[in-house]
């Protein structure tokens, strides 16, 4: 799963969504380092995956560059 730019609404928005398929890994953008641990814990518990399967990026360009090998200008 790729999560880009949800900011402070991430927990609220994802709490209201149910996925039928198992989520095996997550790539998420988190700009505020102070929120990182809480968001990673939330995602790990919500989707029942190990925290090492959650990759954190600083911004959307960083995520796209690393996940899709598409360097942005």
Written account of the structure:
- The chain is built from three helices and three strands.
- The chain has 73 residues and is an alpha/beta fold.
- It has one domain.
- A three-stranded parallel β-sheet has the order 1-2-3.
- The longest helix has 15 residues, at 33-47.
- The mean pLDDT is 89.
In the predicted model, the low-confidence regions spanning at least 5 consecutive residues are none
**Major pleated sheet:** 3 strands, parallel
Question: Count of helices?
Answer: 3
- The residue fraction in helices comes out at 40-55%
Distance between the termini: 25 Å
* Rg over CA atoms: 12 Å
Order of helices and strands: EHEHEH
Gross morphology: globular
Share of β-strand residues: 5-15%
**In what order do the strands lie side by side in the largest sheet?**
1-2-3
Number of domains: 1
Q: What is the average per-residue confidence, as pLDDT, rounded to a whole number?
A: 89
In total, how many beta strands? 3
Structural class: alpha/beta
Indicate the topology.
Layout: E1 2-3, H1 10-15, E2 26-29, H2 33-47, E3 54-57, H3 60-68
Parallel strand pairs: 1-2, 2-3
